Amino acid sequence: MAPLRILVTNDDGWDAPGLAVLKSLAAELGEVYMLAPRDPHSYTGHRVTEDGSLLLSEIAPREFTLAGTPADCVRVALTAVFQDIDWVLSGINRGGNLGSDLFTSGTVAAAREAAFLGKPAIAISQYIKRGVPLEWERSCEVARPVLAQLLAQGCSPKSYLNVNLPHTQNGDPAAMVTCDADNQPLDVRFHRDGDSLRFAGSYQARPRTPGRDIDLCFQGAITVSRLQL
Q1: Which residues does residue 87 pair with via DSSP β-bridges, in sequence order?
Q2: What is the model's pTM?
Q3: Could you report the average pLDDT of every consecutive run of 10 residues in the chain (229 residues)?
């Protein structure tokens, strides 16, 4: 049987450590094809470019950067650069994409764009506890069985998966839980200095609904939310 052809992308930029981890994991599951943003595009949501040129650069065999958004990258990869991609993986984002983050996340937008174009997709993010160092090697260990299981299970048409890894330490076990995304808002507050305003909300202090992704990931579970277009 032919190996899976896996497209990887992200919103932190082509040289982000989380994408390097995702590429290594994808290589264990199939053939890797990369088309990722040339520059970071965190919080860019599902913005796409339809009124200007997009600069594509080949940096290695089957690896490209694009001067565009994560959704742009998936559009270009699936329609103009690569043939017969089987799965799209987006991440591993540095920071969680939980609950209302789904609407602002470029990582999730890349997976959503893949679903629009008929490809199964997974967005995967690493929640980070404030003041605790992030160990990408641990993220790799936690994500490995999750991605293998989800790719084996498949994804229904016009749907995609959003995965969040908890911030575990010292080899703490993490169970995978399928759950709904939370519908609570972020902790929205601003610090005002004259006419200047700066967001002052706390990600960790955001409201959460018991049994949904924010609550479960903050408690140490790997959350998987199945999202439908």
Answers
A1: 6
A2: 0.96
A3: 94 96 98 97 94 96 98 98 97 97 97 98 96 91 96 95 91 90 95 94 93 96 97
